[in-house]
Amino acid sequence: MRYPCSPFRAFGKEIKIKQRNMKKTTGCMAIAMMLLASCDSKEAAKEFEYSNEKFADLQMLRYEVKGWEGLSLDQKKLVYYLSEAALCGRDIFYDQNGKYNLRIRSILEEIYTNEAFDHETDEMKALEVYLKRVWFSNGIHHHYGELKFLPGFSEEWFRAAVMAEPDHFPASYEGQTVEEFLDEICPVMFDPTVMPKKVNQADGEDLILTSAGNYYGEGVTQAEAEAFYNAMKDTLDPEPVMYGMNSRLVKEDGKLVEKVWKTDGLYGEAIRKIVFWLEKAAQVAENETQKTVINKLIQFYNDGDLKSFDDYCIAWVKDLDSRVDFVNGFTESYGDPLGMKASWESIVNFKDLEATKRTEIVSSNAQWFEDHSPVDNRFKKEKCKGISAKVITAAILAGDLYPATAIGINLPNSNWVRAAHGSKSVTIGNLTEAYAKAAHGNGFNEEFVYSDVERELLDKYDSMTDDLHTDLHECLGHASGKLLPGVDPDALKAYGSTIEEARADLFGLYYVGDKKIVDLGLLPNKEAFKAQYYTYMMNGLMTQLVRIEPGNDIEEAHMRNRSLIAHWAYEHGKAENIVEMAKVNGKTFVKVNDYKKLRNLFGELLAEIQRIKSEGDFEAARNLVETYGVKVDGELHKEILARYKALDLAPYKGFINPVYTPVYNEAGEITDVKVDYSESFAAQNLRYSNDYSTLPLVN
Ligand code: ZN
After folding, report:
1. Residue 509 C-alpha to ligand 1 middle, in angstroms?
2. What does the domain layout of the chain look like in residue ranges?
3. Which stretches within 40-89 are classed as H helix?
C-alpha cells in the first residue's frame, strides 16, 4: 500500500497523488503531511532546478539523489543494475493499463520524431501534448481521474499524417495494413464512448466489462472472474497466497485460464530482461540477506508461483540492515476493479542516514514525551515505545510509480505475511523535498501568507518543522495514550479516524513548540516552531479549501481533523485575539498574534481529544467534529478558490528520473556510476522507448 499524499498542506494539490489508494492504507497518513513551502537556502535552489515544464494539468519535477557520492562503488553498481531492472518493466505497465497503449505510444512517437513534419503547426503541438500525457499516464487514461483523455488534433489530420509516410510505420502491427491498423486504433483514441474509463468502480455495473484495463481477456465477465477465483480460494488456509495477482484471466475455447506473467509466460520478453539485471545485482548485493531477497525474486519471476512470491516477501521484510533497497514487481492492485491483479512497478532507493537518525531520536525519547504530555495521567501509557520509520532516498522510479508517484510506501500487501513477519514502512525524503522546493516561489505564499514577517519565518523553518511534525505525528502521536479498560476501540464509529488523526496532529503540534525539541537538537531555536503553527492555522482555516468543490462540506478525515483543530483554536482564542482573520484590501489572511498561547490551546484540545478517545465518548466526538471540522464558510471558500485559480498551478505532478551512466576501465569493469539530471521528460521517454521497449506491441 501507499501513502496517498492526501493530507496536503498549504500547497496541497501538488501532493495529491494516488489518493484512491486510501482503501488499503491502514495507519496514519500524516506521513504525507508535508510542507510544501520554503527552502532552506536560496543557494541550494539555484543549484538544483526542481521544477520543470508544465503541460495539460501536469507539472514535471526533478528529484535530487542526495548522498549518491557517499555510496560505495558496489552500492552504486547495485543501484545501477536494479535501475536497469526497473526500466525494463516499463512496457508491462503500459500493456496492463490497456491493450492498445503500446501501439498508440509507438505510432505517436513515430510521428513526433519524424523530421519531415512541420513541428510548428497547431496539430503537431497538440500531438506533443497528447503524447506527453500518454507518457505521463502510461496509457490513454488519466493517471488519477481514470477517464480517457482525448487528443487535441483531429482524426482526419492523424490519418493523413500516418498515410503521408506509411513506410515509417512498422508493418508489424499484427500483420495488418496501415489502413486496417488505423481503423482499429482511431476509435480507441478519438471516440469518447470506446474504453472510456480505466478502472470502473460504479456499483451495479459489470466492473470488468466496463473497465479498459487489460487484466482480463476479451469477453470475461465480472461474475465469471469472481466465480473462478472463489473456487480457487481455500478459506481455511491460514497462509493464503494473493490469488490471481500475477496473471491475465482469459477465455480459451470457452474455458477460463490464467496467463501467468513469468519468464516463459505472458510478458516473458520483459521479465527475462528484468531477471538478467537482477542476476547482476545479486552479484554485488551488500550481504547474504539481500542476496537471498534478490534470488527469491528471480525464482518467483521464473516459476510464477505465488508461494514463491510470499517467500520473497518474507525475505524482503527481514532485510533491514542493507543501505540499498528496492521494490520490483507486481505490487499494487488498484488498477484491477476486483482488487486482485497487481500492476508492475519499481523503485530503487537507499537509506537517508541523517533523516533516519532524526526519527530514531524521536522514537527513543517516546517515554519522556508521553510522561510530559498535557493529557490526564489516567489516559497515558506506562510503557511507551515509539515507532521507527525509515526515511529513504529514491534513485529511480518505474512502472506504476513513474512519473506520478507515492511519497510513502508500506509493503508487503499480504495480510498474513504482515501479521506473521511484519512490514516495512518508508517515507521518500527526496521526493517530499522536491515537492516542497518546487512549491517555493510558485506565488502561493505571496498570495496567502499575511506579511513578510511570516513569509520569512516560513522560508527559514517551514520545511524542517513540517518534517519534524510528521515524525512526531507518526512515531509518537499515534502510539501514545491508551483506552480505559472495557472501552470499545470502535466506539467513536464514523468520527474515529478524524479524532485519531487530530490526536496525532495535536501531539505533534504541542511538542514542536517544546523546549525539549531544541534540547534534543531537532530544531535550531525557540522561534522555528512558529512556522509550523502558522502554516497549520492558515491551512486549516483557509487554504485547504482549495480542494473542496464549491457548495460541498469537508468529507475526508485528515481535512476534517485539520479544520477541527484550527477552528477550535481560533474560536477558543477569540476573547484574547490569539489568532485573527485579518482583512487586507478585501482579502482574508490568517494572523497569529500569540504563538505561546496558541500552544496552550493545542495542549488543551489534545487533553480533551485524548479523553474522548480513552473513554470512547461518541457524543463529544460527534459534537467536536460536526461543530469545527465539517462546515465550510461559503463566502470565504469562494474567495480562496478565486485567489488559488489566479495562481494557475498544475494540480498534478510527476518526476523525471535521473540518468545513471557507468564509467568503465579498459578491462571493461565499472569503476564509477555517474548521475545526471539534465534530461527532459520527452527526451527521457523517447530514450526509454528506444532502449527499453521490451515487449511486442500486441501481448
Ligand atoms: Zn496519522
Report:
1. 13
2. 352-645
3. 42-47, 73-87
